[in-house]
Design a protein that fits this description.
Number of domains: 1
CATH architecture: 3-Layer(aba) Sandwich
Largest sheet: 13 strands, mixed
Radius of gyration: 23 Å
Distance between the termini: 54 Å
Number of helices: 23
CATH class: Alpha Beta
Strand content: 5-15%
Shape: globular
Helix content: 25-40%
Bound molecules: 2-acetamido-2-deoxy-beta-D-glucopyranose
Number of strands: 17
Length: 661
C-alpha cells in the first residue's frame, strides 16, 4: 500500500514536470520571496540554497558513507593503508567538472566518466558514484544533462544506445544541424520546420527568443531520450519539447540521492556593446558573472550576484526581487539549458568581420526575425527575462546586468574558463577534490594546454582570493607545456596547512585530466567543427578516452603501459583532505603516489628538465587523424576564420544553420 501510494505521488509530480510544449507559461506568483541570497564567504555566511542543502545532506549522510567505505576497502583499486572508517569520518567530498569543446568535449567527457563509472568494471574507481557534484559546460553540459535526465544510465550504453531499454543513444551519426545529410533536403526541411514551430510558440507566448532556442531544440533530439531512430523526422513526436531541466528531480536516482548534483555553467554579457578586443582568446570578460543551472536553482555564488531564483520560476522578470508582471513556469526547458551553456554565437559577432560572413550573419538574423520574436529579443545570445533587475548583492560588489531587461546568457567557456570549476569552488560546497576533465581545443592539434586553469586562477584573483581560493598552478600555458603537464594527469594543491573547508586558506585538490596526444590509445582530438560522428568513431572515441582515463602517468620508459599505481594514487588524492581532517598521517603508499602526481612551484624546474629529456624519446602518437569538418560546417570552414576555438566553433554552427534556414 505504502509503496503504491508513493508511486502515485511520484507519477503526479512527473506529469507536472513535463511541460505540454516548448513555450513557458505565466502563473500567479507565490507569496514567498523569489530571490534567495547565498551570502558572503568573507563574512562567514555563504550558504547553499535550502533544497540543494537537503539533497546534499541526504546524499552525504545516507548514500555516500557506504560507498566510500567500499572504495577504501576495495583492494582492486589499491590499498591506501588508511582505516576506511576514519577516512569516511572525515567526510570526503568530490566534484567532477567536464569542459566544453563541442561534441569532442561531450565524448571526451563521456568516455572519461565511463572510466569513473563503477559499473564499467573500471580500475579508476567509482568516482562518478562517489561525486557530490557533476558540473558541465557547453559540450560537457550536454553530457551532464544526458546522464542526469537519463537517470544515470551506464555511460557506454547511454551514448551508443547499446542498451535495448533505450533506442539509439546519442545518434551522433545524424549531424546536429543537417541530420539527414546534405542531400536529404526534404527531411532536413521538415526537421528544421519542427524546431521553428516550437520556438515560434515560445515567441508567440511573449518570451524573447534567439538562435539559442533553435540550437537547444536540436540538441534535445540527441541528448534527451524522446527521439529514437524511428521517429527522428516524425513531426508528430514531441522530441522532448516539454522536458524541463528541473525534471531531473523526478528521476529515480535523484530521488534516492544516488546522483551527483548536476550543474551547468554559463557566462553572461551586459549587452552587444560589451566587446573584447579582436585578438583576445576570450569573448566575455572574466569580471562578468557566471551563472549556473541546477535542478533547483538558477543563479551564481560569485561576488557580483550571490543569489538565485528557484528554477521553476526562471524566466520571471523581477525588479529588486519584485515581480513586474505575472510569474513564469516551464522556462527551464532542458534543451534550452544545454543550448544556453553552449550559446557561443555572439563570439562571431564580436570577433569577426568580413563580407562573406556579414551576409551569413544577416541571413541568420533574418531567420530569427522570421520567427516573430517579441521586441527586445537579442538574436545571438540566450535570452533570459532578467530576474536580477535592479538587484544589489549583499557582498559589496554590484551586479553588472542589473540595469538590463534581458539577461544575456552566453556559452560557459567564453571567458576562457572552459572547465566549469567556478561553481565547484564555491566555499559553501566545500569540495576537497575536483576531477577536471579538459577536452578544450587549445592547441593546433586540438588538445588542451591549461588555458582554462590559467583563466580560473585569474578569475579567483579578481576578488583578492577572498571570495574563494584556487591552488598554485603554472603561470601560463607555455609553462604547462614545458613541464609536460599537458600530457598526463596532474594534482594541483596537494599540501595545505588546514583542511577544514571553513578555513579560508583551504582549496580543493585539482585533478587535472587534459586531453592530450602522447601515447594516446586512439583519436580523441577531433575538430570542434565536427557535428556528426560515425558510430565507429563514437565507439573508438569512448574506448580511447576510457583507456586514457585509466592510464595515469606512465613510466617514461614504458610510455604505452598504464601506471599500475594510478588507481591507488587517485584514491589517495580524493581522500587526502578527509584524511587530514581526521588527523591521520599520510601512509608511505599515498605519499609515494602524491610525490609522483602532485605539482608545486618548487618542482617546476625539475619537470622542465624531465620533459626535455623525455622529449627526445617521445613515442609515436597512437592517436590523431580526428580531423574532418562535417559537411554542414563546410561553408563556415571555407571562410577565413580568425584563430580562437570559440569563434571558429560559433562560425561552424552558424554556417550549418545558414544552410538550413
Ligand atoms: C551575510 O552577512 C551580511 C553582513 O552581516 C548581511 O548583510 C547579509 O544579509 C548576510 N547574508 C546572508 C545570506 O545571511
Ligand atoms: C585488502 O588489503 C589489506 C592489506 O593488504 C587487507 O588487510 C584487507 O583484508 C584486504 N581487503 C580485502 C577485502 O581483501
Ligand atoms: C526518459 O527520461 C525521462 C526523464 O528522466 C523518464 O521519465 C523516462 O522514463 C525516460 N524514458 C525512457 C524511454 O527511458
Ligand atoms: C541498461 O539500462 C538500465 C537502466 O538504466 C541499467 O540498469 C542497465 O545496467 C543497463 N545495461 C547495460 C548493459 O548498460
Ligand atoms: C575588430 O576589428 C574590426 C576590423 O578590423 C574593427 O572594425 C572592430 O572595431 C574591431 N573590434 C574591436 C572590439 O576592436
Ligand atoms: C582580502 O583579505 C585580506 C586578508 O584578510 C584583506 O587584507 C583584504 O582587504 C581582503 N580584500 C578584499 C578585497 O576583501
Ligand atoms: C595554448 O592555447 C592557446 C589558445 O587557447 C594559444 O593561444 C596558445 O598559443 C597555446 N600555448 C601553448 C604554449 O600551447
Ligand atoms: C586557517 O589555517 C591557517 C593555516 O594553518 C591557520 O593559521 C588559521 O588559524 C586557520 N584559521 C581558522 C579560522 O581556522
Ligand atoms: C565499459 O567501457 C568500455 C570502453 O568504452 C566499453 O567497451 C564497455 O562496453 C563498457 N562496459 C559497460 C558494461 O558499459
Ligand atoms: C607535501 O608535503 C610532504 C610532506 O611534508 C612533502 O614530502 C612533499 O614534498 C610536499 N609536496 C608538495 C607538492 O609540496
Ligand atoms: C635542470 O637542468 C639544468 C641543465 O642541465 C641543470 O643545471 C639544473 O640543475 C637542472 N634543474 C633541476 C631542478 O634538476
Ligand atoms: C590530432 O592529433 C594528431 C597528432 O597527435 C594530429 O596529427 C592531428 O592533426 C590532430 N587532429 C586535429 C583535428 O587537430
Amino acid at each position: 500500500m505504502l509503496q503504491s501510494a508513493a508511486l502515485v505521488v511520484a507519477a503526479a509530480a512527473l506529469a507536472a514536470a513535463q511541460a505540454p510544449s516548448y513555450a513557458p507559461i505565466r502563473v500567479d506568483c507565490p507569496s514567498a520571496a523569489l530571490i534567495g541570497r547565498l551570502g558572503d564567504p568573507t563574512r562567514g555566511n555563504q550558504t547553499l540554497p535550502p533544497d540543494e542543502q537537503q539533497y546534499i545532506d541526504n546524499r552525504r549522510n545516507n548514500v555516500l558513507p557506504d560507498l566510500w567505505q567500499q572504495y577504501l576497502n576495495d583492494n582492486a583499486t589499491g590499498s591506501t593503508g588508511y582505516s576506511a572508517s576514519e577516512i569516511v569520518g572525515g567526510q570526503p567530498n568530490l566534484g567532477i567538472a567536464i569542459s566544453g569543446g563541442g561534441l569532442r568535449a561531450s565524448l571526451y567527457g563521456a568516455g572519461t566518466l565511463s572510466a569513473l563509472d563503477g559499473r564499467n568494471s573500471s580500475t579508476a574507481g567509482p568516482l562518478l558514484q562517489l561525486a557530490s557534484y557533476l558540473a558541465g559546460l557547453s559540450g560537457g553540459s550536454w553530457t551532464v544533462t544526458s546522464v542526469a535526465l537519463n537517470d544515470l544510465e551506464p555511460i557506454y550504453s547511454l551514448v551508443t544506445g547499446a542498451n535495448s531499454s533505450r533506442t539509439g543513444g546519442w545518434q551522433l551519426d545524424r549531424d546536429i544541424l543537417a541530420p539527414s545529410g546534405l542531400l536529404g533536403f526534404s527531411d532536413n526541411g521538415n526537421y528544421y520546420d519542427s524546431l521553428e514551430e516550437d520556438v515560434r510558440a515560445k515567441a508567440a507566448a511573449g518570451f524573447p527568443i534567439s538562435i539559442t532556442d533553435l540550437w537547444g531544440r536540436a540538441l534535445a533530439y540527441h541528448f534527451l531520450n524522446g527521439t529514437t531512430e524511428d521517429n527522428f523526422f516524425s513531426t508528430d513526436a514531441a522530441h522532448d519539447q516539454g522536458t524541463l531541466f528541473s525534471s531531473i528531480r523526478y528521476t529515480t536516482s535523484f530521488q534516492s540521492g544516488q546522483m551527483p548534483y548536476p550543474i551547468l555553467a554559463t557566462t553572461s554579457r551586459i549587452n552587444e556593446n560589451q566587446q573584447l578586443t579582436n585578438d583576445s582568446t576570450s569573448v566575455i570578460p572574466l569580471e562578468n558573472t557566471g551563472f549556473e543551472i541546477s535542478p533547483f536553482t538558477f543563479g551564481s555564488f560569485e561576488a557580483t550576484l550571490a543569489a538565485y531564483i528557484p528554477l521553476e520560476y526562471l524566466g520571471t522578470q523581477l525588479s529588486n526581487g519584485q515581480p513586474t508582471n505575472r510569474c513564469v513556469n516551464y522556462f527551464d526547458n532542458a534543451g534550452f539549458a544545454m543550448g544556453s551553456s553552449a550559446s557561443l554565437f555572439n563570439a562571431v559577432q564580436e570577433g569577426f568581420v568580413g563580407a562573406t560572413f556579414s551576409s551569413l550573419l544577416s541571413n541568420l538574423l533574418q531567420a530569427v526575425t522570421d520567427l516573430d520574436p517579441p521586441e527586445g529579443s537579442v538574436a545571438l545570445v540566450a535570452n533570459y527575462p532578467n530576474s536580477f533587475g535592479n538587484f544589489t548583492p549583499d557582498t559589496g560588489y554590484s551586479f553588472e546586468s542589473a540595469g538590463e531587461q534581458i539577461l544575456q546568457v552566453t556559452d560557459g567557456g567564453e571567458d576562457g574558463q572552459n572547465v566549469p570549476l567556478m561553481p565547484l569552488l564555491a566555499k559553501a560546497r566545500a569540495l576537497d577534490a575536483i576531477f577536471a576533465v579538459d577536452g578544450s581545443a587549445d592547441t593546433s592539434e586540438t588538445y588542451a594546454n591549461g588555458t582554462s586553469l590559467v583563466a580560473t586562477a585569474q578569475k579567483v584573483e579578481l576578488h583578492a582570493h577572498n571570495y574563494t581560493r584556487f591552488p598554485d598552478i603554472p603561470h601560463n600555458q607555455q609553462e604547462f607545456v614545458d613541464q609536460g603537464l599537458t600530457t598526463r594527469p596532474t594534482f594541483f594543491g596537494c599540501n595545505i596547512s588546514d583542511a577544514n573547508m571553513g578555513n579560508y586558506s583551504n582549496y580543493p585538490i585539482i585533478i587535472y585530466h587534459p586531453n592530450s596526444a602522447g601515447a594516446n590509445p586512439g583519436a580523441t582530438n577531433y575538430s570542434t567543427f565536427k557535428l556528426s560522428y560515425e558510430d565507429s568513431e563514437t565507439i573508438s572515441f569512448l574506448d580511447a578516452a576510457n583507456l586514457y582515463a585509466k592510464r595515469g602517468y606512465p613510466d617514461p620508459s614504458t610510455p604505452t603501459q598504464p601506471d599500475e599505481q594510478w588507481p591507488l594514487c587517485l584514491k589517495c588524492a580524493v581522500v587526502d583532505r578527509a584524511r587530514q581532517r581526521a588527523g591521520v598521517a599520510r601512509t608511505d603508499a599515498c605519499q609515494a603516489c602524491l610525490n609522483r602526481y602532485c605539482w608545486s612551484p618548487e618542482i617546476a624546474d625539475q619537470l622542465v628538465n624531465a620533459t626535455q629529456t623525455a622529449g627526445n624519446n617521445t613515442p609515436a602518437s597512437g592517436g590523431g587523424g580526428g580531423g574532418g569538418a562535417s559537411p554542414s560546417s563546410g561553408a563556415a570552414r571555407a571562410l577565413a576564420l580568425p584563430a580562437g576555438g570559440v569563434v571558429a566553433a560559433a562560425a561552424a554552427v552558424l554556417g550549418g544553420f545558414a544552410l538550413l534556414a
